[in-house]
Write a structure and sequence with these properties.
173 residues; alpha+beta; binds ligand K1U; binds zinc ion
């Protein structure tokens, strides 16, 4: 398994709309394993979309367990029903150190395929529903900061630029 590089806002590649997965082969299984590894080695990550690792396929992984024992894989996910509204604080591995509350559907029905191409459908709520909507946004080239005002989004951009400048300085002797 390999840890992949996560693209960071405002990288234009995060705006790519992902393509449907049509081939369910060994290469796809390896991508799922590498994405899981990347999520588990990130800062408290509970989800990851393929777009974030510069692979433009409709695939996402999530795991809400403490011990990384419940990997959830959604390939070609589609929300077929939704109801209610919830607002929760979200984070994003592509926008490190930034948190904001976003309005999302409370309950969703999602239809997807597993890594073998088998279709399944499930109802999700709470954080599980929020995370899936957040990850599906990634597959459409959308980020949670897009729900903020242009002024706040620009503040986020500046904060990340500053973080990167400081990180670059830390390795200069
Ligand atoms: O980058 C990502 O898409 C992963 C993201 C998923 C997510 C978390 C919380 C709400 C919506 C989507 C993260 O895992 S960010 C990690 C994090 O800091 C966090 C974890 C749980 C709750 C809140 C933040
Ligand atoms: Zn994200």
């Amino acid at each position: 398994m390999s840890k992949l590089n996560i693209l960071e806002f405002p990288d234009a590649r995060l705006r790519t709309v992902a393509n449907k997965v049509k081939i369910f082969d060994k290469q796809l299984k390896k991508l799922v394993d590498d994405m899981a590894e990347t999520m588990y080695h990130s800062n408290n990550g509970i989800g990851l979309a393929a777009t974030q690792v510069n692979v433009h396929k409709r695939l996402l992984v999530m795991d809400f367990s403490e011990d990384h024992s419940h990997l959830l894989v959604y390939i070609n996910p589609e929300i077929t029903d939704q109801s209610g509204e919830q607002k929760r604080e979200e984070g994003c591995l592509s926008v490190p150190g930034v948190y904001a509350s976003v309005k999302r559907a409370e309950i969703i029905t999602v239809k997807a395929q597993n890594v073998d191409g088998k279709s399944f459908e499930e109802d999700l709520d709470g954080l599980h529903a929020v995370c899936l909507q957040h990850e599906m946004d990634h597959l459409d080239g959308k980020l949670f900061v897009d729900y903020l005002s242009p002024l706040k989004r620009n503040m986020v951009r500046k904060k990340l630029e500053k973080q990167r400048r400081n990180a670059a300085q830390e390795v200069v002797f």
